[in-house]
Amino acid sequence: MIGTSLESFDFYVFAYFSAYFIGPLFFDPLGQFGGTLAAFATIGVAFVVRPLGAAIFGHMGDRLGRRATLLWTIGIMGVATGLIGLLPTYAQAGWLGAVLLVLLRVAQGLSLGGEWGGSILLATEHSSPVKRAFYAAVPQLGSPVGSILSAVVFIVMTLALPAEELAAWGWRIPFLLAIPLLAVSLYLRLTIDETPVFKAVVREQRRDRVPFATMFRAQPTALVIAFGAALLGIGSYSLMNTYTINYGVTTLGFTFQELLVATTIGGLLQLVTIPLFGWWATRVGSARVVAYGALGTLLITFPMYWLLQFASFPVLVGTMIVGGILPTMSWAALGGLMNDLFADHYRYSALSVAYAVAAAVSGFIPLLTTLLGESTGYVWWHPGVVLALLSAITLVSARAAARMRHAPISEDGREVQPAAV
């Protein structure tokens, strides 16, 4: 969980940065609207390459082990994030900085493509079947912790530095922090043992030569269901914490600091709700908790965005909290749902690919929502359309997952291949 939190900090600090700084710093000739689109597109670039990273690191995870693969993912992420803090801006080197920024975002995206599946498996494959849903929820804390850390850094910096100094050099500090954080992450992951489940796969000589191909042949329908189940948990973050920050500043009239405080409060609440929802999943099943979260989000989507039009800061905080709790249900139980769907000898590849494809789609949500807002004159309901669609897809997928047969587990932890679906 700690390692995932630090890697999430590396990745999410760019989301906060892009919503406010990346346009004028790297894409200044494109103007305000063009710079905003380019900034959100750089977020999308990292998400687009995540499926490739999932295929690469998923293969490594199923062939070489969960622990070794996670050392690679955190190393690439930390180095790429630190180098972003050293890039020249457009004023200093023209388009060179933008080109290098895109390349480093590609490296970040490849790394994150293999991170999530490995962190879930490292937790669940050390747990008993009874506690597996709860253990699967714990690494999900990495997302709000990383979000909180990155938001706190920016809040402190915007209070401590004048806007001119923040734009001139202060924005580099959060990225350079990745270097010491990388050292901490590597140390933590070097102390972790390989999972008993992967050791059993190796001992019993059940490793596939190409796990990526095996999962498509054995469980193609399960991959589609896993993709749909992941959309709300990932996509709602892109919508609320990236698009809504920019929309709140440019259209609703809130300050950047107010929106960061609101999202940070929502993230702090997730530190409590994610473990609670994980515990609940051990009682009623992970798929049901994902479905309940999606249904609740669908019901409150349009009232929430309507209320934002008249919101004071306290109402903004309340809206962000309510709008965050329900998608968090789907997020907290997602790892348990996916873990239950796939066999152990290609599970790293399956979890990584399904999650990464959902992330690739979600990465363009800020861009697509901006285009929808521009075409509708930023009418109040335009973000609600996007969130409602994500909720509906996840609801249908979670209901389908609840009806699927899962792999039975023997007393020694060995898992039986599920029937092809």
UniProtKB/TrEMBL annotation:
Bilayer topology: Multi-pass membrane protein
Q: Which residues form the Major facilitator superfamily (MFS) profile domain?
A: 1-400
Say yes or no: keyword Transcription regulation present.
Answer: no
Transmembrane regions listed in the UniProt entry = 9-27, 33-57, 69-87, 93-112, 133-161, 173-192, 212-239, 259-282, 289-307, 313-334, 346-368, 380-398
- Do the record's keywords include Transmembrane? yes
Instruction: Report the superkingdom from the record.
Output: Bacteria
The record's InterPro entries line, in alphabetical order, gives: MFS, MFS_dom, MFS_sugar_transport-like, MFS_trans_sf
Listed GO MF terms? transmembrane transporter activity
Which keywords belong to this entry? Cell membrane, Membrane, Transmembrane, Transmembrane helix, Transport
Q: Which GO terms describe its cellular component?
A: plasma membrane
Q: Where in the cell is it found?
A: Cell membrane
Read off the PANTHER family from this record.
Answer: SHIKIMATE TRANSPORTER
User: This protein is called what?
Assistant: MFS transporter
**Originating species:** Agromyces luteolus
